Amino acid sequence: xxxxxxxxxxxxxxxxxxxxxxxxxxxxxxxxxxxxxxxxxxxxxxxxxxxxxxxxxxxxxxxxxxxxxxxxxxxxxxxxxxxxxxxxxxxxxxxxxxxxxxxxxxxxxxxxxxxxxxxxxxxxxxxxxxxxxxxxxxxxxxxxxxxxxxxxxxxxxxxxxxxxxxxxxxxxxxxxxxxxxxxxxxxxxxxxxxxxxxxxxxxxxxxxxxxxxxxxxxxxxxxxxxxxxxxx
Length: 232
Prior knowledge:
Blueprint: H1 5-29, E1 33-35, H2 38-62, H3 66-84, H4 92-100, H5 118-126, H6 132-140, H7 147-152, E2 154-158, E3 163-166, H8 181-208, E4 214-216
Antiparallel strand pairs: 1-4, 2-3
């Protein structure tokens, strides 16, 4: 569903605000030096990836680059799916330790014995978020070369005659920001899910106690402002 340009501007601002909310959560959970577990490292990695991708996504919307924006949307969905994997394993600390040491998540099992392939993770999250499945299906087409890229190179001029124009280049020609409505809304929802799940998990770690590993933790709090990107 497309949205008006002004509304798209608001959603983009909301995405930027969601980045600040993620940073605020982590700033409130960690101090300069504290005891941490592998679960902390896992959550730190989630935030690092999520914020990097969110900033890049906004830049791609600004550049009118839907191909890369769609790819980043799929990557952000991947981040959310793997964040929620913590909730479905029997031993979260052992799970986080294995991932930290290089074991792929799709090689590990959930508490119910299922191997945590993408489909398993997607289906579990989609149980309470039905919009996840169509977004997953649509955005996945941009990760590997597919019909999505072929069709992006063609602009139909006249469907009755089949006349089409070839468009080669990095940008979407003649597209207003309203064209990116679905991408913007989906990305915002993903960003909003991250601090909710991460805060829940930080509280569980506190309840269960922490192990004696000391590290220095630095949370960068710079978020570049992109307000008014699409102001007329």
